């Protein structure tokens, strides 16, 4: 099957400039490809995340982007089908980690930032919704992509169960961040990919008046072919007929699976 990688969606680029409409369409088409869904259901493809802020959550002395590349280079026995980066917001974080993972973190005290009520709030605000996350789709022809990847990921409790043959054990600093993620079933892969429909995008546009935001919304909808909800429009500078408005949308792309 086809592979997806565009430099515009790379970890070091995605926070600075939104990908253009063609790149977005290519990603939407890729994620909605029936062949991808079939391969996921067969167990041939799994989802991996390399989390944000690696320069403060790993034992590596390098930039966040460089450490993400180092971790990726240490993945073995799996092919790479797709690679792109996203900017989680807190709502997407809540959707991604529902049920038992959330309950477990809610019962723990914050580890580094005492201003948060619990580890759930701390992890969401300082890691998941605070920087770019790299998304990898990893492939195995033997139907064991999930197992192979989770074996390489290792135990989340590296303070008490560090195994340096695993990625968490090799690179993780402590339990503040698990640094990487691996889906635990084909259904989880599809559910988690659907959550990436909720990508936070920020676009700045010169418009003639506050009401022109609606026109810009229509243009964006036509260009990107997705359903958009306006979250906020913040005036950065205002003159008589000259507004600079930063528009934040929540884009909901067609679901896969």
Keywords:
23% strand; 257 residues; alpha+beta; 11 helices; 36% helix; 2 domains; Alpha-Beta Plaits; three-stranded antiparallel sheet; globular; five-stranded mixed sheet; disordered C terminus
Q: What is the annotated CATH architecture of the largest domain?
A: 2-Layer Sandwich
SS summary, helix count: 11
Largest sheet, strands/sense/barrel: 5 strands, mixed
Q: Helical content, roughly?
A: 25-40%
Unreliable segments of 5+ consecutive residues:
200-257
Look at the structure and give the mean pLDDT: 79
Coarse shape: globular
CATH fold name of the largest domain: Alpha-Beta Plaits
Portion in beta strands: 15-25%
Name the helix and strand elements from N-terminus to C-terminus, one letter apiece.
EHHEHHEHHHEHHEHEHEE
Written overview of the protein:
- Helix content is 36%, strand content 23%.
- By secondary structure, it is an alpha+beta fold.
- The protein folds into two domains: 4-88 and 131-195, 2-Layer Sandwich (Alpha-Beta Plaits); 199-252.
- The strands form two sheets. The chain has a five-stranded mixed sheet with strand order 1-3-4-2-5, sandwiched between helices.
- Strand 7 (227-238) and strand 8 form a beta hairpin.
- The chain starts with a strand and ends in a 5-residue tail after the last strand.
- The model is unreliable at 200-257 (pLDDT under 50).
């Amino acid at each position: 099957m086809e592979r997806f990688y565009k430099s515009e969606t790379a970890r070091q680029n995605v926070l600075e400039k939104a990908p253009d409409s063609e790149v977005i369409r290519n990603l939407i088409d890729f994620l909605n490809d029936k062949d991808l869904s079939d391969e996921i259901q067969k167990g041939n493809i799994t989802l991996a995340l390399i989390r944000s802020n690696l320069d403060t959550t790993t034992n590596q002395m390098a930039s966040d982007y460089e450490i993400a590349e180092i971790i990726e280079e240490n993945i073995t026995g799996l092919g790479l089908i797709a690679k792109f980066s996203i900017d989680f917001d807190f709502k997407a974080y809540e959707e991604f980690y529902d049920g038992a993972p959330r309950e477990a973190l809610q019962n723990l005290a914050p580890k580094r930032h005492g201003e948060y009520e619990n580890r759930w709030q701390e992890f969401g605000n300082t890691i998941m919704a605070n920087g770019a996350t790299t998304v990898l789709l990893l492939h195995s022809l033997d139907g064991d992509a999930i197992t192979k990847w989770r074996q390489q990921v290792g135990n989340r409790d590296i303070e008490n169960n560090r195994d340096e043959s695993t990625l968490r054990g090799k690179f993780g600093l402590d339990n503040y961040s698990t640094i990487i993620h691996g889906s635990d079933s084909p259904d989880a892969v599809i559910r988690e990919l659907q959550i990436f429909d909720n990508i936070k995008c920020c676009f700045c546009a010169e418009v003639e008046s506050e009401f022109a935001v609606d026109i810009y919304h229509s243009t964006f909808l036509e260009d990107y072919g997705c359903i958009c909800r306006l979250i906020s429009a913040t005036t950065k500078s205002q003159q008589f007929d000259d507004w600079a408005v930063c528009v934040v949308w929540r884009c909901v792309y067609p679901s896969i699976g």
